[in-house]
């Protein structure tokens, strides 16, 4: 059955993408960190639905919340009518919001996916400001619909000004290293101040506090505060995409809380639905100027997702799982960093909380000449000369991990970053097993 299911699905599904090709397993049961395949093999799931499963698979409080709705006789589909389930979800969500936003927040249910919420956020700031331009960052990922794609890192769009995201290792702008964040911030500031640059006053700036799909690149808190100051000073709404970083993942309930930055708009999805599809934007009330009917959608009222989401949010809050993610993540980062001493192909280990990336490089590759950049007549020193990315090696590590019962995915511009996104509920022993299996996989394929 296992082989047949895989073969049929890989053959029938679009060539664009199916995880089934990269991860040939057929999950039939799951609990917490563990997935069991149709062939009886068990895996530690560090993909977690691309970071969705804050409480892991089939957490009892989530199942209980879903069952309660199913058994209550409440309607499952009500468009976005007011319901007790929605009321409970919104109350719990508002309870978690950063101070400064919580007391004056509005919510727009979007959905069902993160990309839908990104679209709504872009539409909101464009309506509120009457402007159309957008500031976004190299390496960003915001989704696969037209507006979200336009805001994502690699896309070309005349309305979007692409800014350097601070990245001290292998910075594509050649401004990495310890001063990288400072230089990236000055780059943005001088671009916006330069009336000759041709950058029109934009409708908003959109950023991820940690770039996830972009290769697990945490933005320094000081840089985030600079971006807040830059946008506030120029009345540009700041949209923070916490689709992947939210609900405790990075060691704070929302990743912006590390820096104290209060965004104007937050884009939320993934973990807020407790493993079911749910996406919302929350934003400052004075931006709520779009007319009735400006945003709609049939699937904005998923009762099961709201119930599962409310249960997840309150469980993470009451059990201090963000703090747990911070402690555990720091320990795992520490252990994984020792691997970069052991293996020349481990270029950098980085992350925040339980959002961890291991970037693989080719130690024998040619080192490209660093590019010098000039800003305000100040010649900037390029960051440390990076080694070339090693996407084939990364794919081999992913396969070797799977062979050892560890599910990981790749990210980054070159698909050379092994990403770990385990549930926040993992035990110390499970965290150690993840590190051991990854080390083992590296030892098997690395030179
Ligand atoms: N924003 C971020 C930061 C994401 O990581 C993702 C998904 N990986 C999205 C938006 C898009 O979400 P979805 O895939 O649900 O459309």
From TrEMBL:
Identify the cofactor(s). Answer: pyridoxal 5'-phosphate
Keyword Transferase tagged: yes
Q: What keywords tag this UniProt record?
A: Aminotransferase, Pyridoxal phosphate, Transferase
Pathway assignment reads:
Amine and polyamine biosynthesis; ectoine biosynthesis; L-ectoine from L-aspartate 4-semialdehyde: step 1/3
Q: Which CDD domains match?
A: OAT_like
Matching InterPro entries: Aminotrans_3, Aminotrans_3_PPA_site, Dat, PyrdxlP-dep_Trfase, PyrdxlP-dep_Trfase_major, PyrdxlP-dep_Trfase_small
Q: Which SUPFAM superfamilies match?
A: PLP-dependent transferases
E.C. no: 2.6.1.76
Q: Please list the coiled coil stretches.
A: none
By sequence similarity, the record places it as follows:
Belongs to the class-III pyridoxal-phosphate-dependent aminotransferase family.
Enumerate the NCBIfam families for this protein. dat
Q: What is this protein called?
A: Diaminobutyrate--2-oxoglutarate transaminase
Species of origin: Streptomyces endophyticus
């Amino acid at each position: 059955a296992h082989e047949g299911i895989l073969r049929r699905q890989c053959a029938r599904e679009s060539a664009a993408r199916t995880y089934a090709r990269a991860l040939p397993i057929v999950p039939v049961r799951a609990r917490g960190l563990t997935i069991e395949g149709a062939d009886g093999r068990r895996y530690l799931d560090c993909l977690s639905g691309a970071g969705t499963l804050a409480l892991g698979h089939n957490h009892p409080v989530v199942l209980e919340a879903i069952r309660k709705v199913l058994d209550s006789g409440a309607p499952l589909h009500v468009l976005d009518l007011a319901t007790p389930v929605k009321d409970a979800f919104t109350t719990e969500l508002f309870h978690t919001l950063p101070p400064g936003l919580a007391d004056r927040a509005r919510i727009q249910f979007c959905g069902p996916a993160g990309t839908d919420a990104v679209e709504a956020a872009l539409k909101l700031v464009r309506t509120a400001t009457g402007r159309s331009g957008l500031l976004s960052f190299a390496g960003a990922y915001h989704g696969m619909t037209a507006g979200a794609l336009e805001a994502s890192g690699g896309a070309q769009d005349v309305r979007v000004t692409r800014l350097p995201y601070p990245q001290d290792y292998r910075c594509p702008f050649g401004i990495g290293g310890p001063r990288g964040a400072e230089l990236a911030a000055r780059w943005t500031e001088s671009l916006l101040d330069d009336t000759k640059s041709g950058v029109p006053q934009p409708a908003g700036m959109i950023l991820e506090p940690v770039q996830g799909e972009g290769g697990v690149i945490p933005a320094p808190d000081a840089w985030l505060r600079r971006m807040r100051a830059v946008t506030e000073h120029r009345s540009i709404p700041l949209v923070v995409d916490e689709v992947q970083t939210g609900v405790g993942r990075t060691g704070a309930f929302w990743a912006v809380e590390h820096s104290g930055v209060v965004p104007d708009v937050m884009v939320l999805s993934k973990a807020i639905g407790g493993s079911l599809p749910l996406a919302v934007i929350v934003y400052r009330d004075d931006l709520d100027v779009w007319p009735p009917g400006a945003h709609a959608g049939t699937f904005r009222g998923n009762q099961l997702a709201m119930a599962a989401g409310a249960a997840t949010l309150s469980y993470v809050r009451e059990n201090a799982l963000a703090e747990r993610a911070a402690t555990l993540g720091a320990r795992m980062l520490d252990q994984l960093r020792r691997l970069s001493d052991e293996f020349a192909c481990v270029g950098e280990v980085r992350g925040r909380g339980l959002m961890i990336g291991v970037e693989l490089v080719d130690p024998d590759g040619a080192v490209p000449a660093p590019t010098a950049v000039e800003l305000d007549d100040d010649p900037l020193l390029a960051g440390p000369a990076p080694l070339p990315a090693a996407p084939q090696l990364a794919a081999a590590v992913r396969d070797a991990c799977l062979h050892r019962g560890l599910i990981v995915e790749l990210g980054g511009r070159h698909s050379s970053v092994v990403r770990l996104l385990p549930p926040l509920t993992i035990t110390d022993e499970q965290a150690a097993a993840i590190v051991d299996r990854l080390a083992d996989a590296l030892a098997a394929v690395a030179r």
